[in-house]
């Protein structure tokens, strides 16, 4: 699960993301700042299996080297969500939400368009 700051957790709440968070005990490391594990509760079946390059294991796309998304209805797209039947660390962000995240100046992660995404676990 990703670790996020209280500020990002509050921002996700404002975006009306569906998630659960679990506070970490970090007072000895960072003082008064609070950090949380976050578990996104929404997923969207938008993985383009025809245009993506990946290894399939048990119906899930793993070892993704080329990512393409399709069939996204932007009217119902959640602000932040998981991509169904792919590696759990892969998180999608709507265009509107990504603009807001950039404007707020959040750091510690990268926002990458699907066509430019490269799996860091596969880079040698």
Automatic annotation (TrEMBL):
One Pfam family matching this protein: Imm11
Superkingdom of origin: Bacteria
Family matches, as InterPro entries: Imm11
Domain Immunity MXAN-0049 protein residues, every copy: 3-58
Protein name as annotated: Immunity MXAN-0049 protein domain-containing protein
Protein source organism: Rhodopirellula maiorica SM1
């Amino acid at each position: 699960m990703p670790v996020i700051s209280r500020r990002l957790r509050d921002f996700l709440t404002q975006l009306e993301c569906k998630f659960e968070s679990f506070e970490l005990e970090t007072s000895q490391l960072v003082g008064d700042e609070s950090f949380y594990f976050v578990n996104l509760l929404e997923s969207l079946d938008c993985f383009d299996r025809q245009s993506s390059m990946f290894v399939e294991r048990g119906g899930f796309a793993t070892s993704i080297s080329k990512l393409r998304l399709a069939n996204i209805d932007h009217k119902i797209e959640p602000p932040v969500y998981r991509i169904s039947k792919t590696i759990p660390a892969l998180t999608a962000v709507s265009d509107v939400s990504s603009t807001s995240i950039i404007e707020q100046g959040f750091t510690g992660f990268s926002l990458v368009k699907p066509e430019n995404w490269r799996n860091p676990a596969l880079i040698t």
